[in-house]
Amino acid sequence: xxxxxxxxxxxxxxxxxxxxxxxxxxxxxxxxxxxxxxxxxxxxxxxxxxxxxxxxxxxxxxxxxxxxxxxxxxxxxxxxxxxxxxxxxxxxxxxxxxxxxxxxxxxxxxxxxxxxxxxxxxxxxxxxxxxxxxxxxxxxxxxxxxxxxxxxxxxxxxxxxxxxxxxxxxxxxxxxxxxxxxxxxxxxxx
Amino acid sequence: xxxxxxxxxxxxxxxxxxxxxxxxxxxxxxxxxxxxxxxxxxxxxxxxxxxxxxxxxxxxxxxxxxxxxxxxxxxxxxxxxxxxxxxxxxxxxxxxxxxxxxxxxxxxxxxxxxxxxxxxxxxxxxxxxxxxxxxxxxxxxxxxxxxxxxxxxxxxxxxxxxxxxxxxxxxxxxxxxxxxxxxxxxxxxxxxxxxxxxxxxxxxxxxxxxxxxxxxxxxxxxxxxxxxxxxxxxxxxxxxxxxxxxxxxxxxxxxxxxxxxxxxxxxxxxxxxxxxxxxxxxxxxxxxxxxxxxxxxxxxxxxxxxxxxxxxxxxxxxxxxxxxxxxxxxxxxxxxxxxxxxxxxxxxxxxxxxxxxxxxxxxxxxxxxxxxxxxxxxxxxxxxxxxxxxxxxxxxxxxxxxxxxxxxxxxxxxxxxxxxxxxxxxxxxxxxxxxxxxxxxxxxxxxxxxxxxxxxxxxxxxxxxxxxxxxxxxxxxxxxxxxxxxxxxxxxxxxxxxxxxxxxxxxxxxxxxxxxxxxxxxxxxx
Lengths: 190, 526
Ligand SMILES: Cc1cc2nc3c(=O)[nH]c(=O)nc-3n(C[C@H](O)[C@H](O)[C@H](O)COP(=O)(O)OP(=O)(O)OC[C@H]3O[C@@H](n4cnc5c(N)ncnc54)[C@H](O)[C@@H]3O)c2cc1C
Known about the structure:
The complex is a heterodimer. By secondary structure, chain A is an all-alpha fold.
């Protein structure tokens, strides 16, 4: 009982203050409190290192168009989905890396041809013809056309990377506690 | 070192039940388990998905064959690099394993159906394959005891293809969408029932079987013990124990026992037997028939055969009365008469009340978000589970060079679905579409593509039972025809797959075989 109260106290306040305020030195020696931790995403700006700057810029605009900000949820860009997927791609299979790199290059080429500017500078309305493959009906097997496949996978990944982000969890937890993406994590074993 | 009465290999459903019966029955048992013993209290911590290093996507390439693994539980699944296997190019087999005390029962979905004589006596019914050497009447008394132990809830329907059980009666009211689907089925004489599931916080051998077995004082559990082979006494021709390797240190050990009960899961048990070669059994222990490794079966799954929308629930109008819940449609094809262009049949799991995933919607941006909001909680979907026929060419064998982390030769797995399965899947899809339309649902997506063999996690066979020692490895008591103190009590003993999830049957068979061992021991016959 006493232990539970101590833990509640620690989670309710910043970790460095709690022991001083709630545990006497004697108690602190007896208890093994759980200290609050923060993942790196919450304290630092992640570096991008996989996509070229022009690809990254195109990806950022694609993210903004596919998953825009809503009244009660962040956009993919606000959710850091682009930087996260850049990182994920850096560790993905060569096929997947090529799918995304080529897909972004194709968007840039199509955009230059049609509008004389890179995809990063297109408005949502201008981008519409380039994103037409996303309006084709779902098929079980991935599409043969690599561009359609890239766009489908980018849409899926951006949606998930947004829904699994801290800004999204923060926005959802304003609506309900259950929506914060909590789960039981299994620690590694030796 | 002492000689144990019984050595049990594996601690999942099959091994856990063997330990429960044998240790409580007075046999001095040693249970060897390849994986660690998890501490449920200490091994799990609550985390938000955004705190995970890969935001819930999992490390790319970590589990190419385990689609069920999430980043939350990634450390629970067998590492595919430490535990490799192979398959023919272009015909992948998705082998899903958990190596830990409790085995896959730490994570199973708990659907618990009895097999019927349409499975046990399938050959009598349609002439295909082999009958099991037992019938429902033989196994029913054990089902009767396993269901209450696993607190299986559901509803008895009196259907011959889905035998009634000793269930916690599920009297929950069906939502209106489920009622509409059931009514559409009824019009065509298609039976439906409630889901039948083990209940409780954890329905695993870890909490339901092993603790009581340990309490008897007759069970020793040694985790991290990777069994390499079962050893044979050349003089008696009987199994006399096993050689194993410590998972962490790779130190080698030999243990002695009077009886060996193999329960390492379907393909791992067969792998151990195939690796246990001797002058007497040059192609694997107890393999005088040459059948060991053959007749690999499972149930093919067509996940989300149909995804539909209940139109009246759009715009947040669903609510609990209209949406939610689910059920099961047992096999109904080819029972009283031959129907369609295939033999055997398939079943459906169906569910109501989810939000259809964005991938089904050919939209993006604001429009997609609006649609998703409109469709929140409106989904109705069916997944098909069909019987894959037993065929000799679907088999496992030892790979000539591939070895695992502990130097133990690995499996090469060959399983392909055939025309019978493809025709079933097509029929299941078409029928599902018709029923959903009849129920007034809008079809969002439909397909008949099976997941790769193995992904259903219901791999069965390869060490099958039978009366004839020339065409089977085990007799009607899961006892090897060739080595009478060797028993194999997991899903490898199955003769055919049926459409029912297999664990309840594995539990019942293991209970039955273990009681037989006690009985034979008492009579001095073992
Ligand atoms: C996600 C998921 C959902 C499922 N849903 C259902 C369901 O709804 N209904 C259903 O009926 N079934 C379901 N199953 C399948 C069910 O879990 C298995 O049928 C059941 O666990 C099989 O029991 P078993 O004892 O044969 O094998 P397991 O439970 O796999 O146990 C075998 C044990 O043997 C150990 N072992 C393996 N090799 C060795 C070795 N060389 N030496 C020592 N030990 C070894 C393993 O580490 C393991 O612990 C599901 C499985 C999963 C993973």
